[in-house]
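Hello,

Our lab assistant flagged a job as stuck in the queue for most of the afternoon. It eventually completed. Since we weren't sure the result was trustworthy after the delay, we are filing this so someone can double-check. Below is the sequence as submitted and the structure that was eventually returned. Let us know if re-running is recommended.
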Amino acid sequence: MKDFAARIRKIRNAKDYTQEYVSMQLGITMSAYSKIERGITDPSLSRMMQIAAILEFELSDFFQVRNSSETPNWEEESKFQEYGFVTRKEFAEYVRVVTELQAKLNEIQNKLSQ
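-- returned structure --
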């Protein structure tokens, strides 16, 4: 369940939802929800379905198996490649890198045109 906990935290952060907001939507205390996100409490299937609805993701995608013998390793997929979610900090870093590359490309183009 720690995989579930880590992924819902990342999705919640990507949507800029607070733990307080999600806990209010679930009708539980923030402390109880925090324990779910930290992997201390294993949520029931119905609770997991509620969390999926609030955070707007398909619960079935969380537990999708690639083939009959391989279970996904969510730690290796920390960037949520299947979902396309990144945090604001990650997005800002991507923008910074793209901007730097664009400046270098412009510099190279200017040198070639001279």
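-- support follow-up --
The delay was a queue issue, not a problem with the job. The result is valid. The chain has two domains: 1-64+74-83, 86-114. Confidence is low (pLDDT under 50) at residues 65-83.
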